[in-house]
Task: inverse folding
């Protein structure tokens, strides 16, 4: 009976670990997608002239 309790505890720990990893990777994936979308938006705004970075416009 002792081995059964050990395996039951290990199974519960594995389930908790999988759920935690799933939540963490989901959050990281959303952060990466948001940063990529912000970068693309910044690039498009730069091409349209709304963000004049890189051409000396912000230098005094």
Result:
């Amino acid at each position: 009976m002792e081995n059964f309790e050990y395996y039951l505890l290990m199974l519960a720990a594995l389930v908790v670990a999988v759920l935690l990893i799933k939540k963490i990777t989901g959050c990281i994936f959303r952060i990466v997608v948001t940063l990529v979308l912000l970068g693309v938006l910044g690039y498009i705004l730069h091409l349209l002239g709304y963000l004049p970075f890189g051409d000396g416009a912000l230098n005094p």
